[in-house]
Specification:
This protein is mostly helical. It is built from six helices and two strands, in the order H-H-H-E-H-E-H-H. Among the domains are: 1-60, no CATH class; 61-113, no CATH class. It is elongated and about 120 Å long. InterPro entries: Ac_transferase_dom_sf, Acyl_Trfase/lysoPLipase. One of its GO terms (molecular function) is transferase activity.
Length: 177
Amino acid sequence: MQKRLKVYLQTYPLNSLQKTVISTVTDEKLPLNTDWRSLLLEKITSPVRFMDAVKSAEKEVDLFIEVGSGSILSRLVADITDIPVISLDSSSESLQGLLKTVAVMFVNGVKVNYQGLFEDRFSRPFNLDYQPHFIANPCEIKAKGKSQQAKVENIDLLLPNHSQNLKPETSNLKPQI
C-alpha cells in the first residue's frame, strides 16, 4: 500500500509551505522546502506526536484555531495548554464557529478583515463613537452642582388662597396614651 501511495503522490501536485507548520510527525517547525511526499509517507507509519507538537507550537502562538469540523482537537489542545483554543467547525451549516473565531481574534488584538462577512448581505453601518441623546423628563434628571434646600419664611405664601382660612377641627381629638 505504501508503494501505491508513493506512486500516487508523485502524480499529485503539492505546493511549498507559505506559513509556519508544526508537524505531528516530527513535533518541529517544518522548513519551507519540506518534502511533503516523504512526510506524508512517514506519517502513515509513525506515531502521532500531537502533544509534543502542541507544546512546540505554544511557544509561538497566542491562540489555537481548529480549522476542521467539530471541536475534538480543540478540546484535546485545551487539556494540554493554557493558550486559548477555538474551533471554526467548518462543516457546520451555521456561521457560529466562524463568528466566534473572528470575535476571539478581535478581542485578542488581531487586526481582522471582517468585510467579507458583510458582502452581499443587508447591514446597516454602526458608528461605535455615536452618543445617543434621549428625551427625558426634566424632573427625573439629577440636578447639576451642589443642591440647596429651599428656605421658606412664610408657609402661608405657598398655600392657595382658599386654604389659608381653613382651620382644622381639633376639639374631637383625644390624646393617645
